[in-house]
Prior knowledge:
Blueprint: H1 11-25, H2 40-49, E1 54-57, H3 64-70, E2 78-81, H4 97-106, E3 113-116, E4 121-125, H5 132-135, E5 137-139, H6 141-146, E6 157-159, H7 161-164, E7 168-173, H8 180-185, H9 187-191, E8 194-197, E9 200-203, E10 208-214, H10 227-232, E11 235-238, H11 245-255, E12 264-265, H12 268-283, H13 296-316, E13 321-322, H14 333-336, H15 343-348, H16 350-370, H17 376-383, E14 388-389, H18 396-403, H19 409-416, H20 425-441, E15 445-447, E16 452-455, H21 473-476, H22 480-484
Parallel strand pairs: 1-10, 1-11, 4-7, 7-10, 12-13
Antiparallel strand pairs: 2-3, 5-6, 8-9, 14-16, 15-16
Helix pairs in contact: 11-12, 12-13, 12-16, 16-20, 18-20, 19-20
Amino acid sequence: xxxxxxxxxxxxxxxxxxxxxxxxxxxxxxxxxxxxxxxxxxxxxxxxxxxxxxxxxxxxxxxxxxxxxxxxxxxxxxxxxxxxxxxxxxxxxxxxxxxxxxxxxxxxxxxxxxxxxxxxxxxxxxxxxxxxxxxxxxxxxxxxxxxxxxxxxxxxxxxxxxxxxxxxxxxxxxxxxxxxxxxxxxxxxxxxxxxxxxxxxxxxxxxxxxxxxxxxxxxxxxxxxxxxxxxxxxxxxxxxxxxxxxxxxxxxxxxxxxxxxxxxxxxxxxxxxxxxxxxxxxxxxxxxxxxxxxxxxxxxxxxxxxxxxxxxxxxxxxxxxxxxxxxxxxxxxxxxxxxxxxxxxxxxxxxxxxxxxxxxxxxxxxxxxxxxxxxxxxxxxxxxxxxxxxxxxxxxxxxxxxxxxxxxxxxxxxxxxxxxxxxxxxxxxxxxxxxxxxxxxxxxxxxxxxxxxxxxxxxxxxxxxxxxxxxxxxxxxxxxxxxxxxxxxx
Length: 490
């Protein structure tokens, strides 16, 4: 709606009509929301078109809060309100006693304040210490005393967050964590629009769109949700983790802080390994599925990988800064706090579980880059006793020089990385590092914790049982201890 135009339109009608217009124009509905176009977004659109209050059910790191905040883009850019009104009273149809008095007293000469869409969004994180006064309101003795008002007067009320969201969007994160009596206080607000403050009935038919978030494990009959409140929520929309690595990569690239004022390159295979770690963790039986693995994990890991690459480059004066796969092992502290372990995982330890996840991720991505490649000469070089010692702090020039001693190693790494031998040494070093870690992840070569690569441990083969030799009569008469000292051959 253009600024300066007075129009009476309930907020849910406003959001519905603006959404319908976007659908007609085929514009992006929720900028920054990735991977939900065929799953979550259609359900969300249906709920808004139906003018329903709704709840987003999902594990941590599934963009629930981002979706709620994106709803503000469906509001009008500006709306008129009565100046100094605590609940954004409409000048045409005031709701509070204050608003009604001011319109009556000033009439058409009353000024109008224009409220931007960003100020019409109110968000509250549900915690056990939230009170009904925080959410709905309370009697304000000081206001009553200053205005010489009765305590039961509506003018003496101090309105809570929900009334202050009038004509806007009110959201509650982690709804089941809200105390039961507070959930009860939301019943009539959702359905009839009237509330009671300190026992005084106050009729407030609030004009508000209410949305919630919750973990599916808590939003059950066994959880902490009050069933009558659940009954008044129009739609339950399930969110999920990214179903493709491509979408996950886009989100991480969008959110991670990688551009740091110096030339930094993060090869695509490094980004893919970082993302694959989260996919591996979500499928790992040692990781608690009910807790989930947030999309924040690959974001934090990628930022730490870049930091370790910076540390190495700054120490050796290298440019550009190029991240390596081995930098990921220095990002373990960014992983271990991002997932909860089952009992088996607790016994193994978070650090070891994280290392196993990295190794599995490298193996998966390596297969996509080197599937069908002839790596036999490289493996043979190590099996014949060759070894390389390369840590995450080894400078690029040294790494490339040492790797050149391995037949075909550098050439294959450069080719599969889409480079050529004239590429900067840090980029070539990263490609070589990926090839070596990939061979190690698939157990084709071995590696020490100090990054010493060598041939795979030989498989212990069972020795064939020797057959009992044929003995002559004289030999059969020999004492057993004498016979044991003799060797018999077939």
